[in-house]
Amino acid sequence: MPGARVALLCALFAGSLYAADDLRFEPYDDDYRGQHIHAEVGRFSVPERHSDPHGRKITLAFLRLKSTSPQPGPPIFYLAGGPGGSGISLAKGPRGSLFLAMREAGDVIALDQRGAGLSDSNLNCPESLEFPL
Question: Could you tell me the pTM of the whole model?
């Protein structure tokens, strides 16, 4: 079942990318351990609250490393775990060689989730929680 959940999440995310009328890409070139990497940073907007699709929008960012395969398979999506984790930072960091190796199978997309990394971080949460000691 976990594989089915991941496949559904990837399909929903991919659907969001292709449905977004404000999808934009900018070149992102970097050096990783002596290897020059051509990539793209993409951005698109989503509703801050899914229950209010016409309300305030926030921008999500992702890094796309293009496949090195002549016949690439489906894209590989990486979502950073834990609150506040940046998929883009992990792709550029110590795990970079893994991301580069995965390009042999398909495009690799590392997402910065809401409020993390290069994604819109202006998520104002005025409420506070107090827990008794």
Answer: 0.73
